[in-house]
Input
Amino acid sequence: MLHQEKISIDELRRQFDGEVDRFSNERTGQTSSVDAPLILSIFETSIARMYPNAQRLLDVGCGAGNFSLRITRKLPQLKLTLLDLSSKMLQKAQERILAEHFVVEETIQSDIAHAELPDSKFDIVVAAASLHHLRERQDWKNVFGQIYRSLIPGGSFWMSDLIRHENETIELLQKERYAEYLCGLRDQSYQQHVFEYIDRSDTPETLEFLLRTLEESGFRQIDIIHKNIVFAALVAVKPL
Output
């Protein structure tokens, strides 16, 4: 999936400014992401079970607020910090969350690679289909380190994202499976559109690299909680 020069951060921002309505639908906002509704359900249920008394959540790449909304419906005491590249996404997320009388403590318009997060503040950090826009492996290392520092001891980081595979044959086979999935959703022109979008906008990493980098950042109890084709969901805990 990595063939051409990627678009700039400014281009990404403009791209997402124009997609607010699509990302505002909890069930259909990310149909190109395999099992997106299932991962959202896994996150909200697991976080509510593990952290019933959590106080603060950071949503990295919050989009229109789907993950924050679903988790906060389970844990209405949460104070939310929303971070997104797009001011229009942030505005929509805040509007939707406040409409349900939940608390938005702060909004941060920034690329996560350049954001400055507070130390030891959050019980939970969520990053859903947002980190694949990081371009270099050092960016991933820096971001994981910053997320680790932003968590309180015992807090956890939940991420779901597009991934690639270490083995070239497996990568090709999984890409073929993903093409079939996209054609099944709509048609071949939609599949081509999504693949071109990924080539232009995204830089997915391998699970092996993500797991190793999480551990090197200090996280423990690192688990793959879901994987299907070229998408995976992980959780990692900051030790007490």
Q: What stands out?
A: The chain is about 45% helix and 25% strand. The chain has a mean pLDDT of 93. The first helix runs from residue 9 to 17.
